[in-house]
Amino acid sequence: MPRLTDARQDPEIPPQAPFLAMFHGFVFRLPSVPQLEADWAEPYLQQWVGVKRAFRDDTLRYSLCGFALEPLEQMWVDVNRRLKRNKAFDAGRVQGRIVAALDGIEVLSSYSRCCDSCLQRRVMIPDSQGHPVEQIQYYHRAVGCQIVSSPVKPMLAVEWLQPGEGEDTAALRLLTRLPELYGSPFVDILLLDSLDAQAPVLKLAAPVGWDLVVSLKQQARELYQNAMGLFTHRAGRSMVHHSPGRETVCGKPVGHRRADIYPRPSATGAGRLVAGNAHPESLPARPARSGNHGTAMALGHHVRS
Hints:
305 residues; 8 helices; 30% helix; 26% strand
């Protein structure tokens, strides 16, 4: 808590106080800032955060607008590490493993307010006469990684999408930061959907030590067929879970041999699977591709049993 800072110079109200005020509002689900101000008029709450007087919404606004995120993220990481040390994630382990999921989330949108980091999209909305009109909508979207195997389900990290980039780019940035934040593999298995299962993500998983489970939708049918073909010709077993419009594939090789999986362009450009023991440097050059295609859907590392 003492490491928290903001951009104000010599503030009378320290940065820890606005942070605790917002935390208080979040825990007790206060519906508005005026309700939060009413609570902070209580002397015992002022004593709790170490301030001599109540403060208003302008103090909250000035502090939060310039809040330093790095110390806040480090405090977040410290809390998660303490939870793991105290075995808070042990309940619900899957064959002794901690499972985390990676997914995109949209947190807010507006037709009038925006910032330099806002994403944009064109949507059709009805006007006052009920006729559809096209309007630009500004929104923020992020990729988050959350533990899902235990009753305690903390977020491990969040990465915001920047204008002009896809969710897979933010996912790779987040997964690259996770070992830097938590050191050794903090989780054992990552759940991904086909949008996040790009070749760079799969190649990152093996050296870090993550096992991957990828859920494919019907749009990635060719990747699913390639994965099934790969598992059919490998020693070991594969597990396939079918649900309407979706298949989840897990593979398990036996012994110490692991098939190296590399992306290859298919006739549709969606990518296919190639298994072998060659290193990427020894494979023939791949033709140039544009966009976010060239996906290799697979378990970049095997699911151990």
